[in-house]
Amino acid sequence: MKLTDIYVYQVNLPLEHPYWLSGGRLKFETLDATFVKLVTDEGLVGWGEGTPWGHTYVPAHGPGLRAGLETMAPFILGVDPRKVLEVERAMDLALPGHLYAKSPIDMACWDIAGQAAGLSIADLMGGACTKAQPIASSVGTKTIEETRQSIEMYRARGYVAHSVKIGGNVTRDIARIRDVEAIRRPDEIILYDVNRGWSRQEALRVMHATQDLHVMFEQPCETLDDIAALRALHSAPVSVDESLVTLQDATRIARDGLAEVFGIKLNRVGGLTKAARMRDVALAHGIDIFVMATGGSVLADCEALHLAATIPEQACHAVWACQDMLTLDIADGRGPRNKDGYLHLPDAPGLGVHPDEACLGKPVAHYSLAQESGAP
Hints:
The chain is of the alpha/beta class. It has 2 domains: 133 residues, Enolase-like, domain 1; 221 residues, TIM Barrel. It is built from 14 helices and 13 strands. An 8-stranded parallel β-barrel has the order 4-5-6-7-8-9-10-11. A 4-stranded antiparallel β-sheet has the order 3-2-1-13. Helix 12 links the parallel strand 10 and strand 11. The two termini are 21 Å apart. The model has no long low-confidence stretch (mean pLDDT 93).
């Protein structure tokens, strides 16, 4: 089997509501999504998605993703997509770094490999936990009243896990944390996500002011060096996601004891193949895990669900799904959907969900093995 064609689609995914991070520092209303269709000489087709969370959040750029695909295409055409490590090496040699551009190719290769084997991606990766995964909401940076309203909206949809965005103002952050904890239900999982929005002194002030609440913070500062510098000065559990990009980051966090939780965002780290290594580092060091798509449609959510299904139940807190935040459904209701706040793993081979191509429009690029070989 070999890859013969790569089709690339660009779709704007509008958000239901404008979304703010870090005290309004970052605002998003539409996500620039890239979908990839891989075609093989044996008729199998795989789908992948890469949707950065805007252009200003982290070093991931929608147009840059598509430029990266153009660069890598000649190096992966003709390769057997079931050999995911061979595809990974070909991409890494063709384009060092730019992990977000490699993620949709990796997803589509796992999709094809699963279909070829007659197994779901999770089973192909070693075996799936079939228990449904709780979905973590994403509550943007808001006032106390707006935060309450947003949490209640998600509770009405069945959510028991919430990622509450804070950062930007110490006094306001402390007040919002205390208010959320006052209405927190016993069964709820709550993560306070700073999205790198605090300086070191701001982080310490909020952590010390809320230490009696025993809450958990995600990405309190910009870098791993910042987090390391504060490590001995507070007692709050820490999750790291935006500084968790490479396997080297994962091993440093584990070795130096910088965090109790890995927030593995699949598009950011380069896809399932690289994310699985981070999962294993976390489990070997007793570090818990949140699994997240960086953003995007049900395809990206489904990919995250497959990885989560390979993690022991007690170590996986929740998955984050973006689909409930979008007003455009590119899969016509298919694939894993919110059922009382949980996602259920598809039992179909491969990824388990494909887009409705009519929703994607015409491809913005097409790369073929015939073109590369000079065939007429």
